[in-house]
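Ticket #4471: complex job returned nothing on first submit. Input attached below:
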Amino acid sequence: MSFKKKQYLGLGLTIFCMVILMIVLLFMANLMRANMIEIVQDRYFKVSQATEVRQLFDQTDRQLLRIAIDNDLSDSALTVNMLKDNHNEIRLRLVDIRDSVNSKTGKSLINEIDTSYDAYFEMENQVFKQLEDEDPTNLQEIYNSGRSNRDTLINLLNEFRDHQESLMEDSLENATTTYSQLVTVLVTSVLLALLLIILVTLWLIRSTSRNIHSITKGINKIDFEQLSNIPRLKVNSKDEIGEIALAFNSMASSLEQHHEREQNYTKEIMGKNWVQTNSTNIIHLYSHHVKISSLVEDLITNLAQAVEAKLGVFYLKETGERTTYRKVASFADSGQAAGKDLFVEGEGLVGQCALDKKIIQLNEIPDHSHVISTGLATIKPQSILIAPVLLKDEVVAVIELASLEEFTPIQIHLLEEVLGTLGIAITNIIGRMEIANLLQESQAKTEELQMQSEELQTQSEELQSQSEEMQTQAEELRMINEQLEERTKDAELKSEELQSAKENLEEKAKELLESSKYKSEFLANMSHELRTPLNSILLLSEMLMDDSDQGLNEEQVEFAKVIHSSGKDLLDLINDILDLSKVEVGKMDIHFEEVNILELTEHINRQFTPFAKKKGLEFTVTSTENAPSYIYSDEQRLQQIIKNLLSNAFKFTEEGSVSIEIEGADREDLIGLPLIDQSDSWLKIIVSDTGIGIPKMKFDEIFEAFQQVDGATMRKYGGTGLGLSITKEFAHLLGGECRVISSEGKGSKFTLLIPSLPKGMPANIETAISDNPPSELVTDLPEQAFEKMPIEDMTNQKSAVLKGKTVLVVDDDHRNIFAIKNALEKEEMEVLTAENGVDCLEKIEQSNQIDIVLMDIMMPIMDGYETMKRIRKSENHQDVPIVALTAKAMNSDRRKCLESGASDYISKPLNLDQLLSVMRVWLS
Amino acid sequence: MPRINKEDLELEILLLSIFRLSGYDFRQYMKSSIMRRVHNRLNQERLPTITSLTERIIHDPEYLRKILSDFSINVTEMFRDPSFFKAFRKEVVPLLKGKPEIRIWHAGCSTGEEVYSMAILLEEEGLWDRTKIYATDMNEFVLAKAEKGIIPLQKMQTYTKNYILAGGKRSFSEYYTADCESAYLKRYLLEKVVFAQHNLVTDCSFNEFHVIICRNVLIYFNVDLQVRVLELFNKSMSSNGFLGLGSKESIRSDADIYEEFNVKEKIFRKR
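Support reply: We reran it on our side without changes. The output follows.
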């Protein structure tokens, strides 16, 4: 019997018992209820009605008795009414009782009661009648007549009530008996039902728990750690427990399957985890590297370790003419052993791998390929793996790994995983490196730009410094001039010594020379005044010398001769100095005109032939064919030069010859001359002598004023020492040059080169000539030997920045204006003043040239800020420097000044030195 | 045969010669700059090749002097890049105020204008009494100039403007007197300055400084030398010391030895 059926049976029995019990209970309860209803409704009602009737009757009787006895009719009407009501009530109740009485005794009793009550009522009516007639006399009699009837009625009523009460007691007894019977039945049936239920339940529990226990035992036997082998249950019953056992067995087998699957999954997940962890570790490396080399080094090491490879090489793609893969990093590389350094795409398996973009795995390695080396041996790898690193289907690198065991799929999976991201990483890093390079490059470019700008600035500064250098050179030249001047002075002193006989006159000449600033002008202007007395000296000494009166003795005549010749010498000297100073001062007028060379030679010949004869020297004048027949130059100066040269030659030649050759100049002769390109026709005059000559080291000096070879020469040959200086100067003035070649004791040879300048001296050359540095054998005479002293320059320049500049002083305080005006006028500035801003603006408008404005800030009418703003707004004065005069220590004022357009500011009270400094800065 | 740029070779020989002759080492300077300077000199002297210049500098000390002065580029201004000085005044000076003594090194001070500027700035900030500036340059001629404190008059207008832009607190004219040619810096601004010859390429650290100013010097150096000089500065600096560079310069060192203090004005701080 199945567990279900048993349970149905058990429960059904129980329910059945319960139902029976319930029915019994219901039946008994009903029985009891019927008893109760009978007792309560029937018996009790009749008893109470009878009692009621008795009471009403008693009441009526008492009234009647009272009326009959008392004869008091005062309230008879009221009493009658009440008695009538009682009568009606009694009647009604008696009817009710009659209706409800069903026993025989009762019915007869009630009939009797009715009859006696009717008789009573008769008596009553008589009473009422008497009362209505208001005759109380018969009342006692009437009432007494009805007494027997009344007693009968009362007895009847009592009897009826007792009868009814005895009936009620019977019923009650009945009910009690029924109840005790009922209790007995109930107890018995409940006990029976309980027994039955307990029995069924016990049977049920026992039969199910036995089977369940065996199942529990079977389940407890299961080892949950080891789900691969679960013990089966051996329950053969066909009930639910049996089904459970069957279900359990099938569950066990499916659990076993599931466990097996789970194990497989775990293995797989562990593999994946391993791949994930390793690849994450490797991918993590990417961010640590900014250089490709360090990345791949790190990568190949980590990757090889992760896949347990014993050797790893990383080839990076290099694009060039051919795509090649270069070994950039390796793991456990044993020198040359670990593979080639470079593969061309398609070359070998590495190249092939790059071409195919697929992983190549080699498991059958030839026996002789021992590439893995330890300290003791080289070992053959079991498996080699070559894998491409791809980015967007593009190979960027190739990795080769060798292992002592075959690579497992998981290892290969890891490799694939890593390679998938590696391409991006490598490209990123390459990109980053490129960006870094570009950044560096751009930075370098910026720096280079800055550098170049600085260099440019330096160059401009260099230019400036060169100009400064030139200034210093000019300064040096001035110094040289000074030195030369010194020398001139020396020479003057020498000439003073030489001409000690004419001290008075020489004193004048000396003074003339010493007054450095005005000397030249003085000489030029005073020529006449100098010559006039000299002329008179010469004239008078000549007159004395002639001694036409014969009044002098011989000695005196001789004195006169000395005076004359000395005077003449002096005149020559003065003339020379005049010439020289004229040249130096630039007052020498040069007239370029046509010069006939033939005439010139003839003139020279005429002039010097007698002189040569007198001195006993041979004198020749030769003119070559290539000599120009005429040139454009200053004839007078040219003659003077030639004369000077010849005079010199004759002077220093005691014996032998003096010759002059006139020819056209060759191009070679002219090298180094400033006018070489200005003239086509050059005259070359060579004056040679066989005189004492000049030592080579003195070549330069002889052209300087008052220089002869030495003092002894001067004493021996006389002369002023100015001749060659003048020659040189004149040669220059004519655009040419004078050179000397000489050997001591054998003679000298002066070469004069003069250009033909039909249009006069080219303007731009004039200055060039004087600045031209001396060429080999020619020395310039200092051009500005008598220029003013540089020291005086300085004192004059002191105020040069401020001198003549116009300053507008704007201040409302007259004392300030006065003080500033005084100070600035001492600096030779033009000072304008204004008392306030309005005044200032007017002054600025009126005056067209104001160089600088000194602006007080606190002023009435219009203050300094407003004034400056207006000045800056006007078109003409945006750039004029304005120096604001501010109160001390007021920073905000200064800022306001600058905003209003001030160029600079100084604090009051003014410091004159500071004021002048600022003005120099802004006027420079 | 390896391809050699012959001009580069010539330049190398020239620079080696200069180094051996004078002790000045320009081999780590930016080649482009040095090359331009050399070509300049070649043009001026009308020389055909660098080798001919090398020949001359070996035999003629005057040429050596010339080329050395060519290589020394001395561009400077008072308050050059006024914003730098403004930033220095605003951001660095407050951090210096607590120190009992402030040592500043102006490396490559040239003719000293920036040294004067720093002196004025510190005077205005009330730090001048406690400050000592070491102004160095490899060129002794510019140092001699710098020591004089004389500034050409025509530059003073620009300097005045720079002074104002750099946040000057007084009037600029308080710091100089001028005659018609030059302005003369007040002597007290030079009293605390030590001018000394120092070559960043060959010489080493000589003190520990709170501030090092080296503006527009590194641009002439190649990267290796720049890194070396920056390390030299780092060693010569007290902890948290400041380094001021030129407006176009930057720290191109891998080592994190400086942190940025004011990126725009190129003020760095020792880490």
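Chain A touches chain B at residues 440, 443-444, 446-452, 454-455, 457-459, 461, 797-802, 881, 886, 891, 894, 898, 903-907, 913-914, 916-918, 920-922, 924 (CB under 8 Å). Closing as resolved unless it happens again.
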